[in-house]
Amino acid sequence: MSEYKINRRSALKGLSLLSLGGLTGVFAGASSSTFAAGKKNPWEKPNIIFILADDLGYGDLSIYGQTDFQTPNLDQLAQDGLRFTQAYSNSAVCSATRFGLITGRYQYRLRGGLEEPLSGATETIGLPPSHPTLPSLLKKNGYKTALFGKWHLGALPNFSPLKSGYDTFFGNFGGAIDYFTHKNGTDEKAKEDLYENEVPVHKVGYYTDLITEHATDFIAQHDNKNPFFLSLHFTAPHWPWEGPADEEVSKSISSLGHYEGGNLATYAKMVGSLDAAVGKILASLANKNLAENTIVIFTSDNGGERFSRTWPLSGQKSELLEGGIRVPAIVRWPAQIKPAQVSQQVSISMDWLPTLVAAAGGTPDKNFKPDGENLLPVILGSEQPHSRLLFWRYKANAQRAVRSGDWKYLKIADNEFLFNLREDQRERANLSSKYPEEFNRLKQQWEIWNATMLPVTPDVRTYKIDGKSQADHYKALADD
Fold first, then answer.
1. Is 94 a catalytic residue?
2. Does the pLDDT value for residue 152 go beyond 50?
3. Could you say which of 131, 152, 182, 238 is catalytic?
4. Is 64 buried (19+), middle (13-18) or exposed (0-12) by CB count in 10 A?
5. Mapping DSSP to helix (H, G, I), strand (E, B) and coil, where does residue 92 land?
6. pLDDT value at position 120?
7. Residues 373/27, Cβ–Cβ less than 8 Å
C-alpha cells in the first residue's frame, strides 16, 4: 500500500473522530496515559528542567545544521538523549506559544492566547490563575517549582508566575528587555522589568548570565526532599542584538527592536552565551549527582527571526511556513532514555504538559483536558512514532495551517497550498490541484476545528491598525 493511501486513511479516520467527538479531547491522541489504569510510574519521580529559548531558529544549533558557529553543550545534550526533527511551536510568536505550553491546550481557548503576541505586560489580559498549568499540576504532585526568565503571560496585580503554580520567580514580565539595563524600552520613561517573585529588583549583569546564576544556585541548594520543576525561559536570542560584551551597544540603540543594528557575528555570540548557560546548568546537575534522574528539555518558543538559520525550511517567526513554527527540541533523561536517538515523531509545545505530568506519575486536570498528547511512550521507546493532526491560525486567520500525517495545508492571505512535507520540507511544490481531495479535506478540518476555538473579536489588540480593527481599517480604505 502506498504512503499516500496510508496517510489518507489515517487522516480520514481523524475527520470521522472530529465529527463524532465534538472535538473535545479528540486531539489528545491514542496514548492518553503511559501506564495501566491504577498503576503509578515504576521510577522515582524525576527532577525536571525545561529550558526555553526565544526566537531560536530550527537550524541554529550545530547538531541541527548550523555551520557558522558551534553549540557544543546543546550538541552534547542531544547526543546524551533524544532529538526531535519534527517538533513544532504552538504559534509563530512567543506569548501565544507560552499559553499553549503552560496549559497543554490550544492557546485560542483563552482570551490572552488570541493576542499574537501579548503586547507587553498587561494587567487586564493574561493567564487566569484558576486555570491548571504545568507547574501547578506538578506542584500538586509534590514538586518544588521555579521560573527564572521570561513570563509574558500577563502583569501584576492580576497575573504572575506565583499565581499560576510557581513557588519562586526571577525574571521579566513582558516580552523583551535590554540585556544590560533590563528595561522594557529605550526612552526615558522605560522601566526596569525585573522581579524577584512579585517585587521589583535591580540587578547588574547580562540577562542570560543572571538567569543562569539563579538556576545554578537553585540546583546547588536543592535538598533532595522533594523533586523540582525548574523552568528556564531565556530571552536569548531575541532582540535587542546584544552579546555578553556589548554593554556600550546597549547604551546607543534607539529601540529594543534594534532594527538598524545587529549582525550575524553578534547573533552568534548571543546563541553562544545561551549554549554556555546550558553547559553551566548541566555541570551543576552533575556536581549535585542529580543528572541521572533529571529530565532536561531544550526547545524554542517559535521559529527564528532576522539573523537565525532555518535551513532547510522556509519562512521565519510570524509565519506559518515551517521556518516560523518548526523548532529544535531535545530531551535528556539518562535513567530512562537511551542516548544518541533521533525521532521523526511530530510534536508540539502543548505536548509537554501531558508528557511531563505522566513522567512525574500524575494526570492532567479532568476538567481541562489537554489538546496536547502524552508522548512519553514514544520518548521511552515503548511506542513507535505516529501520525498527528495539528492546527494553527495566526493574525485573525490571515494565516492558517494544518499538519496531517505528511500533508500540510497552508493559507497565507488569499493564497492556499498543499505540501507533502516528507518530500518537500521547503514547501515549494503546491500540490493542491494534483490532490484536490486531500486539499479540501484539510480545509474542512481546519474550519471544524476553528469553530471550537475562541473567535477573534474587535477588542483583540494585536489585530488593530491605527486603533481600529483590521476589518474597519480596510473598510475605511475602501470607502476612501
1. yes
2. yes
3. 152
4. buried
5. coil
6. 63
7. yes
End-to-end CA gap in the chain: 58
Q: At what angle do helices 94-103 and 352-359 cross, to 10 degrees?
A: 30
The grid coordinates of residue 273 equal 552565551
- The pLDDT score that the predictor gives to residue 374 is 98
Which DSSP category does 44 fall into?
A: P
Beta bridge partners of 156: none
In whole angstroms, give the CA distance from residue 330 to residue 51.
10
Given the residues 94, 222, 233, 238, select the one marked as catalytic: 94
**Mean pLDDT for the chain overall:** 89
Q: What is the pLDDT of residues 426-473, one digit of tens each?
A: 999 999 999 999 999 999 999 999 999 999 888 888 775 444 544 444
DSSP SS3 for 292:
coil
Cβ atoms 350, 125 nearer than 8 A: no
Reported as type and span, the H/E element at residue 404 is: strand 399-404
Retrieve residue 296's grid coordinates: 532536561
Position of cell 511551536?
Answer: 89
**Annotated catalytic, 238?**
no
pTM of the entire structure?
A: 0.89
Q: Where are the beta strands (DSSP E) in 182-282?
A: 195-196, 199-200, 228-233
331 is written with which cell numbers? 530531551
Tens digit of pLDDT for each residue in 248-303?
Answer: 999 999 999 988 899 999 999 999 999 999 999 999 999 999 999 999 999 999 99
Our CA angle for 99, 392, 400, nearest 5°, is: 145
CA-to-CA separations, 132 to 25, 29, 196, 361, 410, in angstroms, rounded: 16, 20, 23, 17, 32
